[in-house]
Design a protein that fits this description.
The chain is of the alpha+beta class and about 190 residues long. The protein has 2 domains: about 1-25 and about 110-185, Orthogonal Bundle (Topoisomerase I, Chain A, domain 4); about 35-105, 2-Layer Sandwich (Gyrase A, domain 2). Helices cover about 60% and strands about 15% of the residues. It has 4 helices and 6 strands; from the N terminus they run H-E-E-E-E-H-E-E-H-H. The protein has helices at about 1-30, 75-85, 110-145, 150-185; strands at about 45, 50, 55-65, 65-70, 95, 100-105. The protein has a 4-stranded antiparallel sheet, with helices on one face. Strands 1-2 form a two-stranded antiparallel ribbon. It is elongated. The chain starts with a helix and ends with a helix. About 30% of the residues are buried.
Length: about 190
């Protein structure tokens, strides 16, 4: 019985992590407004090592469509500026020797639709991850039943609970996607 509970708990924890990954992925998708999370996925060539931008600089958002990136190491400004320019944010950063200014132009309708497609793809990837976690947990439960470590009724109850966890986590992803789409369509 405890093996079933640990399998369920493990699956639930992994599904929650998949939802967190989706949340992070959605935060990195650009909307009309600037926010620091947009820069978290950008990797910078920092003296030959690819390093997340979040570890190399601080971010401020003084206006809705402008972000200021303040590098800890002023010698890395050119690398950071290049990484931001080459990212999928679609912006052209400018630096004044100490701070990088990133202005976000108004999104066109076509660009908004592209970002919605990206969001839907990321949501589907997360749903697939959750279904894969469910399948692995179901296989583990079937093995416990086959080996005689768990009764048929206990496995059936655990499978029902697993289905509930799966549905709840997929619903969270759908909800995140719905909010992101509404945010992207907001002009």
């Amino acid at each position: 019985m405890s093996d079933l509970n640990s399998t369920l708990a493990d699956a639930n924890e992994k599904m929650s992590k998949a939802v967190e990954v989706a949340k992070d992925d959605f935060a990195a998708i650009r909307t009309g407004r600037a926010h620091p999370a947009m820069f978290q996925k950008i990797m910078v060539d920092y003296y030959g090592t690819y390093t997340p931008l979040g570890q190399l600089a601080t971010f401020q958002v003084p206006e809705a469509r402008m972000a200021l990136v303040s590098p800890f190491d002023k010698g890395a400004i050119a690398s950071i500026e290049k990484a931001i320019r080459e990212s999928d944010l679609g912006v052209n950063p400018a630096n004044d020797g100490g701070v990088i200014r990133v202005n976000f132009p108004q999104l066109t309708e076509e660009r908004r639709k592209d970002f919605i497609k990206v969001a839907r793809t990321k949501a589907e990837d997360s749903r697939i991850a959750i279904r894969n976690i469910r399948r692995a947990a179901m296989d583990a439960m079937a093995k416990l039943e086959k080996d005689g470590d768990a009764g048929k009724d206990d496995v059936a109850r655990a499978e029902k609970e697993l289905e509930k966890h799966t549905s709840d986590h997929v619903a969270k992803i759908d909800d995140l996607l719905k909010h992101k789409e509404a945010e992207l369509l907001e002009v």
